[in-house]
Amino acid sequence: MSTLGLNHQGLVYDTDEQFLMTTVPFCRDGLDRDDAVLAVTTTANIDHLRDSLGGDADRIEFVDSAVWYDAPGRTLAAYHRYVTERSDRRIRIIGEPVWEGRDALEAAEWTRYESVINLAFADSAAWIVCPYDARVVPVAVVDDARRTHPDLVDGPVTEFSPAYVAPDLFDGGIRGSTESERDHEPVLRFTEDLAAVRRFVATVAASLGVSPERVGSLVMAVNEVASNALEHGGGSGRITLHRAGHRIVCDVTDDSPNATVDWFAGYLPPDPAQPRGHGLWVARQLTEFLQIHPTATGTTVRLHHRAA
Q1: For the domain bounded by 187-306, which CATH number is listed?
Q2: Strands (E), the chain
Q3: pLDDT greater than 50 at residue 177
Q4: 104-120 and 139-148 helices, crossing angle to 10°
Q5: What pLDDT digit, counting tens, does each position of 185-226 carry?
Q6: Taking the alpha carbons of 56, 125, 70, 275 in that order, is the dihedral positive or negative?
Q7: Could you tell me how many helices (H) and strands (E) the chain has, helices first?
Q8: In sequence order, what DSSP letters do the residues of 132-169 get, joined into one string?
Q9: Residue 64, SS3?
């Protein structure tokens, strides 16, 4: 690995031995080179790694993937903090997302997260191996791993993934309808009055069964998106909310003729010194999923927020 530039690899395995054949040498080589090594994986794989690495395991940071992979925006921010805090060293990461029990929306958004890693850490001295357990991970997700990882690794063998798609060409569109005008769905047209936006979201969210502690984060997230729409999206827009299972879905659609086409906007951390451009990043920290979709009349930002 070079000292600069990302190395992002997918590891598809179907035995514990195959997992260890790749990850144990990966960790040991990193320790020999004084790299910072982080292993975010299942509790079972953490135990396997500890047993195989012996005393070397004490020099590795282990995190349960069920805790780390909370929401794509927050997880990417956590990795960014880890890399930034160790900017004087090379970084090695085993990053195994949670795929079991994910519904279609969750699987799609975590797949997009895997794609955006290639942009977020393009200039970082980071080597990331993302394991996929073919015994439990759906076939479609494994197929997507070959689209989101430039390289595939299996033990000592590394090869370019012929299915790889660069993030700017990756399918970042919203799956399913993006129409907001459902029957009886509350709609707010807004201009510069963000206080009215906050009141509307708080009132409707509470009526849809959002817990009080979750209402606040949704209100703040929508406020950031609406503010962004006012500044960059024509100065006006509309907001709708409805409940879909255990989530609240909120669409913020601006009236700009220049639709945003970068589905990954807000995933890349803004420069702390810049006075603007933090809104979508903040919104991704406050809610579970945020999707961006161009429409005939502007841009729709869809937020998916847990009700409880």
Answers
A1: 3.30.565.10
A2: 7-13, 36-41, 61-64, 91-95, 126-133, 151-154, 157-160, 187-190, 237-244, 247-254, 289-295, 298-306
A3: no
A4: 20
A5: 899 999 989 999 999 999 999 999 999 999 999 999 999 999
A6: positive
A7: 9, 12
A8: EETTTS-HHHHHHHHHH-SEEEETTEEEE-TT---GGG
A9: strand
Structure tokens at 70: 């909370």
Would you say residue 305 has pLDDT above 80?
Answer: yes
| pLDDT over 90 (residue 295) | no
Integer Cα distance of 12 and 287 in angstroms: 30
The label of the residue with tokens 């406050």 reads 286
Q: Report the amino acid identity of residue 286.
A: L
Strand partners, 306: 247
Are 182 and 242 in contact by the 8 Å Cβ rule? The answer is yes
CA distance 7 to 12: 16
Give one DSSP letter per residue of 238-254, joined into a string. EEEEEEETTEEEEEEEE
Structural domain boundaries of the chain?
Answer: 7-169, 187-306
- The tens digit of pLDDT for each residue in 236-246 reads 999 999 999 99
Q: What is the largest CA-CA distance in the chain?
A: 63
Q: What is the pLDDT of residues 97-132, one digit of tens each?
A: 999 999 999 999 999 999 999 999 999 999 999 999
Q: Residue 135 is which amino acid?
A: R
Q: How much of the chain, in percent, has pLDDT values that exceed 90?
A: 80
CATH of domain 7-169: 3.40.50.300
Q: What is the DSSP string of 267-296?
A: TSPPPTT-SS--HHHHHHHHSSEEEEEEET
The rounded distance, in Å, linking the Cα atoms of 294 and 168 is 15
Return the SS3 of 261. coil
Q: Whole-model pTM? A: 0.91
Region 253-270 average pLDDT? 83
